[in-house]
Write a structure and sequence with these properties.
With 206 residues, this protein is of the alpha+beta class. It has 4 helices and 8 strands, in the order ββαβαββαβαββ. Strand 1 and strand 2 form a beta hairpin.
């Protein structure tokens, strides 16, 4: 996501904005939010901040962030009894049984392996809240194509062929030529064009 912010609504109104501060690229918030609000890697105003509005979360206005949290009641999700700015999670926390949606039976305990706590699911009848994630960061715009390279000059149609090149070179160059034509100049002007019709590939005109 663009800014590492999760929005949680209560009664169809935005209630809290969780803004991740640390290890955003690797943090796995799913179990913290939905059913096991643990303190492991999740200290308020160290690892995350809570705000009443998205604008305040984006701005990181520390004067408007929530000030307290409690944790570590397995089966109770976000935000347990976290409070601040006139709002409290007491009676508004999430507790959903996510076992049907887990990648494996031990997925939560793997995420929480350093917490000293064991995840629980569906133990407490809690509240179902609507949770929203930011849209992913848009990809950077494509780079403009490089300017086209200047076209190389067209290859010369003719190769100078003085007799000093020798017969082997002359005959091989003729046999490899496109159309089997030899040009002869006189007084620096083209004078005649000899065009071979037969056995061009083997004829030795030197």
């Amino acid at each position: 996501s663009a800014n590492g912010i999760i929005r949680v609504d209560k009664d169809n109104l935005d209630f809290a904005y969780y803004k991740r501060l640390t290890d955003k690229a690797t943090f796995q918030p799913y179990f913290y939010i939905f059913n096991n609000w643990f303190s492991f890697n999740n200290a308020i105003n160290v690892d995350f901040e809570l705000y009443n509005s998205y604008a305040d979360a984006l701005a990181g206005d520390t004067g408007k962030r929530w000030t307290s949290c409690n944790y570590d009641d397995p089966g109770v999700g976000f935000p347990r009894d976290c409070a601040g700015q006139g709002r409290s999670g007491a009676g508004a926390w999430i507790a959903e049984d996510t076992t049907a949606y887990m990648s494996s039976p031990t997925a939560c305990n793997t995420v929480m392996s350093g917490s000293g706590k064991t995840c629980k699911f569906g133990v407490i009848v809690g509240n179902v809240r609507q949770v929203y994630l930011e849209q992913p960061s848009p990809p950077p715009p494509p780079r403009p194509p490089p300017p086209p390279s200047p076209s190389p000059p067209p290859p010369s149609l003719w190769i100078a062929a003085p007799h000093t090149k020798g017969d082997l070179w002359f005959d091989a160059a003729f046999q490899a030529s496109a159309n089997g034509i030899i040009r002869v100049d006189k007084d620096n002007l083209d004078f005649a064009y000899y065009k071979r019709l037969t056995d061009k590939a083997t004829f030795q005109p030197y």
